[in-house]
Amino acid sequence: MTNWISLRRMSRPAAALALLGLTLGGVPAASAQTAAATGPQTYNVNLSHAQVSYPSTTQVVVTMQATGALPGLLTLTLNHDAGSADVTSATWALTVSSAQYSPLPAGTTSDDPDAQVMTLVNEGTLGGKVTGATLVTDANGAVVGVSGAQLFIVSGSLQFDGAAGGGSLQATGFADFATSSGTLSLNF
C-alpha cells in the first residue's frame, strides 16, 4: 500500500499513526524462518508512549509504542481482582510494523517539495499469555506501571508463524504519555 505524504502538513510519526494506528520503529524484524535456521535469537525492544484504559474495574489495557528490533505497537490486557495489584490473568500482542520512506518516483510531480512515498510494512503479529505481572499504582489507584511480567509466545502470524519462546517486560511512568518507558525482551 503506498500513500503520498506531505511532511509539511504532518510529521512522519503522526502520518503513520493517523493512517494505520501503527508506529514507526527501528530495524525491521528478522523473519521466523531466519530465527529457525540460526536458532533462537533475543530481540530487545524499547517501549514508550503508554496509553492506559480501564474497560472494567478488574481490567486494564495498556498500549505502548515499540521501537528497536521489533518496531510496532504492543498491547497488554491485564485482569486483576478489584482493589488488588496482583494480575490474575493477562494476554499480550505485538504488531510488528513500520513505515519506510523513499523519494517520489521519477517523473512524479507534487506541489510539496518534501513529499515522499510511504510504504507500510507489516512483518506480522506475536502474541500470548502473561504470568507473574504486578500492577504498579499511584496513591489514587491509577495504574502507572507493570513489573515482573513474563511473556510466553502462543501465536505468531506472517513472518512469525510458528514462533515459540518468551521473554520479559517492565514498564513505568504511565501517568505521563511523553515520558512513559519500558523494555521488552523476547527470545524465539
Cα gyration radius (Å): 18 Å
Listing every helix as H and every strand as E from the N terminus to the C terminus, the arrangement reads: EHHEEEEEEEEE
Helix-residue proportion: under 10%
Strand order of the largest sheet: 2-3-4-5-6-8-9-10
Overall average residue pLDDT = 83
Shape: globular
- The poorly predicted ranges are 1-36
Intertermini distance: 29 Å
Q: Count up the domains.
A: 1
Major β-sheet annotation: 8 strands, antiparallel, barrel
Work out the helix count.
2
How many beta-strand runs? 10
Tell me the strand percentage band.
Answer: over 45%
Alpha-beta classification:
mainly beta
List keywords for this structure.
single chain, 8-stranded antiparallel barrel, disordered N terminus, 2 helices, globular, 54% strand, 188 residues, mainly beta
Give a description of the structure.
The structure is a single chain. Strand 3 (about 60-70) and strand 4 (about 70-80) form a beta hairpin. Mean pLDDT is about 85; it is low at about 1-35. The protein starts with a strand and ends with a strand. The chain has helices at about 10-20, 30-40; strands spanning about 1-5, 40-55, 60-70, 70-80, 85-100, 115-130, 135, 145-155, 165-170, 180-185. It has one domain. By secondary structure, the protein is mainly beta. It is built from 2 helices and 10 strands; from the N terminus they run βααβββββββββ.
